[in-house]
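Thread: quick sanity check before group meeting

JM: Hey all, I'm pulling together slides for Thursday and realized we never actually wrote out the predicted structure for the chain we discussed last week. Dropping the sequence here so it's in one place. If anyone has concerns about the input, flag it before I start.
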Amino acid sequence: MRVSKRQTSAAFLSVGLCLVDPASTLATDALAALPEPGSYMSWLRIVLVLVCMLPWLAFCQWVDKDTQYVRRMRRDTWNGIVLGGGAVGLIVWIMLPWNSVGLFAAGFGLWFLATVGTCAAYVVLRNGHVDANARAFTVRHIKSWMGSLGKKAEAKATAFERVRMTRHNGEKVPVPSDPTQTDAFEATQNLLFDALWRRATEVEMLIGTSDVRLAYRIDGVGTPRTELLTRDAATNAINLIKTIGGLDVEERRRPQQGELTAVITGTNAPPTEIEVRTSGTTQYEKLSLRIVGEENRLRMGDLGMDDKQLSTLEEIIRRPSGLVIVSGPHGSGVTSTLYASLRNHDAFMQNLLTIERESLMDLENITQHIYDSTKHEASYARQLQTVLRREPDVVMISDCPDRETAHLAAKAACDGKKIYMGIQARDTFDALKKLVSLAGDLDTVAQA
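JM (edit): ok, ran it. Output follows.
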């Protein structure tokens, strides 16, 4: 092929221009590399990112709800881990340039590892704290979920048992298979689980015409729980609790009393005894639960004292005789401290007796005398005198209502007996003032 002189001259001129001004060539290449109009973003990749985010966000919602029921998984901690892990991976994925398929795939891989890693860690640890039937994302759980896809949308799933409940007659409460009973079962599970998990000793729920008020007593302090149950859920819960406790569901005004037992699933704790009381008027219905579990069967080391306080109290308990006053406002733990002190004695080697107006729990190998003014013609002090005639080594007196009781307690302590007595008072000085005023004998109180 022959090349003309004009073509040869043009070629040399182009090469000469490139050698003279290389920057112009680079600018031309950069302009040529710019995307065509309308191609600054890839809608397909944006859609893929959004689709990948949906299951992650759904899992975050599930973790937030699941941590409310799995006791050992801290809600705030795991919400932060699962949400933070996916967010960090998402930022890395988005910050990588998308001008090649390889970089986009690499960003997806980093996000996948960060997200699935944190989610898998939660599932593995969570499943280690629950029963086999309550484990999530197992083969059994996935098959059950796949099988439920074909069911009607209005059919509700089987309720999840977080608390094993036992009726007043000893029969276990089964998980309902009837969808119409699921709401009441779930509401009751939410209430009992929340109360047991928070170590509440008392639960009071007041259902009015348009609202519900719920409060716990935890370590002697009232704690409101206003957002746990809606009014409809509270009504369902109180009806089922009345049924389990052996009460009349239709009776909403006359005071009733029953009992049931409950224990959080997945724990080795023994069943917790729960006393159920209901009452009401035409305007409201009230439910009261008194929970007596192992958490409340305290010993000295469980009272929350520091080492110095505990050492001082243990030294007082070791003394063979004397009068020990336990004082505090109502609901501050006076009875729990009296019980813990009494249980610190050897019930097999010593004769341990109590006199109480109401027994909060059964004390093993300890004789408990309950004083009921409607059934006893004698006074509280007279029954205490009867108890002291039985040659006890240690006596627990729940309260000091009158002068004669105070005098008998102080005199028994002077005679060599160990006496524990509770007094409701604002502080220590108020308790001593009440004791001296009731006993009327300062010398006897000082010797006790």
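AS: nice. The chain has 14 helices and twelve strands. Confidence is low (pLDDT under 50) at residues 1-28, 30-34, 151-157.
JM: adding both to the slides.
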